[in-house]
Amino acid sequence: MTDMTEHSPVTQAAAAAVNATPSPVLPDAQTVTQVTHWTDRLFSFRVTRPASLRFRSGEFVMIGLMGDPDPKTGKQKPLLRAYSIASPSWDEELEFYSIKVQDGPLTSKLQHITPGDQIILRPKPVGTLVHDALLPGKRIWFFATGTGFAPFASLLRDPQTYEDYDQVIITHTCRDVAELEYGRQLIDSIRSDELLGELIGADNLAKLTYYPTTTREESPKMGRITALLQDGTVFRDLGIDTITPETDRAMVCGSIGLNTDLKDVLEGFGLEEGANSEPKHYVVEKAFVG
User: What is the pLDDT of residues 167-225, one digit of tens each?
Assistant: First the structure.
C-alpha cells in the first residue's frame, strides 16, 4: 500500500478563528489541533485537553460529532464512540488513532476533520488497560492489532510502565506494512525524543522491545501474533523461555477475534484475567472494536 502520511498542523489563522469563537458550537467541545493521515484506512488526530480531565494512561473516552439532522424534526443528536486516548496522562493535548469506515456513521465524518474543527469529548475516562488492574511482575506484554495500538501509545510514554517492569514488549500485527507506520514512528520518537528520554530515562528506554508483524503483505516478520506465540517463534526471536504467571503480565487490544484467541493463548500459559477491582496477570480492552 502506498504511504499516504500527511501531517496537518494547526495554522495561525485557524487558531485565531477558534480563539475568536465566543462559545463552543458542540457540547463538551474540544478543538482539533493536528491531523495525520497514515493510509487510506488510518488516521490520527490531536485535540485540546479539558483543564479538568484526569485519566490513567491506557483509558478511553467517548468522542464524536453531531449526527445528521432528523428528517422530520431537524434535530441533531451526538454520535459518540469509545476511543482509547493515545497520548500519555501527562500530555497537554489528547491524541487519538482511528480507522476510516467510508459508510461508518461516525468515522465517515470524523476522517474529514481538519485543524480548527471541533469534536465532542465526554470527559469521563474508563477502561481496563491500566497498571492498577495487574499484579506486580517482571515483564509486560502489550498485544495490539490495527488501531488497538492506541492505548499502548499512551502506556509506552508513561514512566510508570518502565518503573514497574524490567522488560516492556509491544507487539503490533497488521495486514500491511503501511498500517504499522503509526506505531513504528511512535517507537522511534520514544527512543529519540529528548523530552521523553529525560522523563523516562535512558536506562528505562533500553527495556523497550518492538515486535511488528504483518499477515498479508510481505515483511521481515509475518504471521498472526497468536500463531507466533503458540509455535514459539516470538520466544526464539526475543531470547525468552516462555510466558509464566510468575514473571509475565499482559494487556490485549485488538479485534474481537484476536482478543478471544489471545485470551486462550495466555490462559494456556497459566495467566488469569484481571480487572480494576481484582488485579491478575492479564487484561483485555473489551470496549475496542476495529
Answer: 999 999 999 999 999 999 999 999 998 888 888 888 888 999 999 999 999 999 999 99
Q: What is the Cα–Cα distance from 173 to 67, expressed in whole angstroms?
A: 32
Q: Are 138 and 165 in contact (CB under 8 A)?
A: yes
Query: Number of folded domains in the chain?
Result: 2
- Domain check: are 112 and 148 in the same one? no
pLDDT in the model for residue 84 = 96
Q: Tell me, yes or no, whether 168 and 98 share the same domain.
A: no
Predicted pLDDT at 202: 85
HSE-up of 147 (CA within 13 Å, CB side)?
24
Gap between the Cα atoms of 287 and 290, Å rounded: 10
Distance between CA atoms of 65 and 62, rounded to whole angstroms?
10
Same domain? For 135 and 279 the reply is yes
Question: Which residue stretches of the chain have pLDDT < 70?
Answer: 1-25, 27, 287-290
223 in a structural domain: yes
Alpha-carbon distances, residue 245 vs 23, 90, 232, 233, 257 (angstroms): 52, 31, 17, 20, 23
Is there a single domain that holds both residue 142 and residue 265? yes
Q: Residues 162, 205: contact at Cβ < 8 Å? A: yes
Cβ-based burial of 152 (10 A; exposed 0-12, middle 13-18, buried ≥19): buried
Residue with cell 494512561: 57
The CATH number of the domain holding residue 45 is: 2.40.30.10
Phi-psi map region of 192: left, alpha, beta (phi>0 left; psi -120 to 50 alpha): alpha
Contact 218, 107 (CB under 8 A): no
Q: Which amino acid is at 246?
A: E
CA pair distance 62, 168, nearest whole angstrom: 28
What cell was used for 3?
504511504
Check if the beta carbon of residue 146 is closer than 8 Å to that of residue 290. Answer: yes
